[in-house]
Amino acid sequence: MNKNKQICWANSTFDESKIVILGIPDESGSHAIFAGASAAPDHIRKISNANDVYVEKKLHCLAQPTFGVGKTRVHDFGNIKKRQVPQVFEKILGSKKLPISIGGDHSNTTPLLKAFAKKYGKISLVYFDAHPDFVSHTRNYYGSVITDCLDYIDVKSSIQIGIRSPEQEELENIKKHKLQVITPFDIVEKGIKSVTKTILDTVKENVYVSFDMDCLDPAFAPGVSVPVPIGVQATEAMYSLRKIVQRGIVGFDLMEVCPAHDLNDVTSHLASRMIGELVSSCKV
Q1: What angle do CA 219, 224, 229 make, to 5 degrees?
Q2: 10 Å Cβ neighbour count for 177?
Q3: Where are the domains of the chain?
């Protein structure tokens, strides 16, 4: 694989790796005004190579996340099609590796959760997003992910973080299913440590984390498909992510980066650094 087509610190073959990164460059389930999320996987790789590797006096230096990923065996699987998720994830999960998926629009999470449920049964879902994605009058798109995945998740041990732009139907579905929601105002009022404790107290075994970059305030991540002001700060989100990952997860996805509408690639670079921090925090 060409170096510019993989995360710069992916350092192992599939068989020897503990963590597998792969892209799903698909936005067929998106109704967003801003198109271009399908370009995210390769663009995040490109920015990772451009900004996380430094050359000085002919020596290549890798800009490691906080605790470094040098000893972590990571394999970049490349990109797959959405329809390939069942087959590819049967292989990855059968090999007892931790998969990190890069989208693409958020509807890609639906086949991913289905694959994890096939392996583990109903899972605990931590869902970072500005939107609940709990529409039920329309199905199989990026706004109906939770509805489409009710058979794959344990709602009682699942939680949404960063929600601030719900539709009335979504509010009714949240209430009906008793899904716990934490807003950015809750984080301000209670503090990120308290909120993170709530997350950890809610989830059980087999925790899956899905992260829509529009969870973050556009000041930190302007290049998303549906930016929503008054969002979560990048450091707050990363603090919670690291604590969740240190506890243990079975999978992670990062969705909805839209490079064509970014500002100086800050969202793609933030995404690559978040993935690096996640890898450095994993229990593998």
Answers
A1: 40
A2: 14
A3: 3-281
Distance CA 37, CA 24 (A): 10
Tell me the H-state helices in 77-165.
85-94, 109-120, 145-148
Other Cβ atoms closer than 10 A to 60? 9
- Third-level CATH fold of 3-281: Arginase; Chain A (3.40.800)
More confident residue, 33 or 273: 273
Contact assessment for residue 282 and residue 274, using Cβ atoms and an 8 Å cutoff:
no
Mean pLDDT of 52-72: 55
- Tell me the per-residue pLDDT of 141-171, one tens digit each, with 9 for 90 and over: 999 999 999 999 999 999 999 999 999 999 9
pTM, rounded to two decimals: 0.94
Sequence-ordered list of residues with C-beta below 8 angstroms from that of 4, at least 6 positions apart, any chain? 45, 46, 49
CA pseudo-torsion sign 272, 111, 229, 197: negative
